[in-house]
Amino acid sequence: MVTTTKNQTANLFDLFVLQQGEEGAEAFRKQTDLVADTIADVLRGTDQPFTGLSVEEIKQQLRPVMDIPESAQSLNEVLEEIKGPILKNSLHVSHEKSMAHLHCPPLLPGVLAELMIGSLNQSMDSWDQSPAATYVEEELIRYLTETVKYPVEADGVFTSGGTQSNYMGMLLARDDFCLSQWNHRVQTDGLPEHFTKMRVLCSENAHFSVKKSISQLGLGEQAVIPVPVDENHQMDPDEVVRIVEDLESEGLLPFAIAATCGTTDYGSIDPLEDLAEFCKQKGLWLHVDAAYGGGLLLSQEHQHKLAGLERADSMALDFHKWLFQPISCGVFLLKNRKYLRLLSHHADYLNPAEDEEEGILNLVDKSIQTTRRFDALKVLVTLKTMGTSLLGSMIDRTMEVAQYAASELERRPGFKVINPSPEMSTVVFQYCPEDIATPGELNRKIQQQLFQEGRAVIAKTAVDGETHLKFTLLNPRTSENDVNEVIDEIEKTAHALVGGISQ
Ligand SMILES: *Cc1c(COP(=O)(O)O)cnc(C)c1O
Known about the structure:
It contains 15 helices and twelve strands. By secondary structure, it is α/β, with parallel strands linked by helices. It has three domains: 15-92, PLP-dependent transferase-like; 123-373, Type I PLP-dependent aspartate aminotransferase-like (Major domain) (Aspartate Aminotransferase, domain 2), CATH 3.40.640.10; 383-500, Aspartate Aminotransferase, domain 1, CATH 3.90.1150. A seven-stranded mixed β-sheet has the order 2-8-7-6-5-3-4, sandwiched between helices. The chain has a five-stranded mixed β-sheet with strand order 1-11-12-10-9, with helices on one face. A hairpin with a 2-residue loop joins strand 11 (457-463) and strand 12 (466-472). The structure holds pyridoxal-5'-phosphate (PLP). Residues 102, 161-163, 166, 207, 209, 260, 262-264, 289, 291-292, 318, 330 line the site of pyridoxal-5'-phosphate.
């Protein structure tokens, strides 16, 4: 009796554990077909970016699904169960009118590569867990360092995204400074005596992950000095010089500038050439957060905007933003690989020092993660199936539509555009007809209402403390007409809200 049960259970193992051989191949094919059919149904059966259900309704629909059974359930049954509550209630980022965040519609080659990434399940930490993948990543990193015009000493690693890449830039900048300033090794000895004097400069519009990183690195948020931006939302280089001189005269120790190439709200680019020159003179580390702006690397028409990027000591680039890859996919690039030493720790079971002597490449030495995804594969499959030219023209198309959106909003009465000549593909604006005393409140309601109706998903942000609206145009299939229709919706919603308020 007992043995039969065990055998039956063992047969079930075959159904669920991915296995080599004919049987495994068939199980894999059958089940991926079922999943493909389910996703196809969702794509067929949804025509809005969001169902528009309330939190309560979503929770209600999820409740029975979240019941975890003790015994097996067929895949078909589970797919059927999750299709509505989870799949359909997701935000449909591929919809042409989904234009809120830096959250892209994923390209098919990337989505399909995810299936391979999961099936192969390589881990990028040591060579013996990713014998081919290690070299795919290495070669892609080399390709990327060449594309950004870095010298041959450059290196890098795939990361979970801009946050992790910014963290790595700040970590290396901190540790290199402590080493050169005090001959102090943070890696072994912790923070040095005078760490409270260390300062980093970044734009007041920089991504919050810069401040978060510095805080997590033990320097405290107080170590981050926000630099005022000019009317184009770029760090003012004269202000940078003034602030650094002021800090030095107070006996403080500025050690790095974290510039942004494509701020989250305005897509603005800090003056990279000026900052690079200044950092060189002063011996400061220049990190460039190009999580968003890195997309322009493949643009035919706007690549020139990245001039000076190659002078950064380190940079963050995201593929899951303006390079249309499924989450997560980013890289950290470093102008000189010698600084990677500041990161490396050895573990006998993973990357023993002898491995290095024998020339075995364990990528864990370059990363702050251990087990790590083979994200490089989706970039490779995308670049190869599409070619760089088509991918670049997708980026150019989103730029074109962003410029159209800005000019159309400027043309329509009642709208005020904060960045009328968008540097990248975001447009920040407000609907503020003259008879409205509190446009911030109205715009907040417009954004909410559109989301609740699920017809268009746009973003909100604050400008001088007041709510504004934002389009983030990352979908190359979003057209001028889609933009017009969303603006019409905004006007219609505003009129209904204002009518409602005044009645
Ligand atoms: C999105 C973004 C980040 C954070 O990147 P994640 O990939 O979300 O970790 C950092 N900087 C900028 C400018 C961004 O737009």
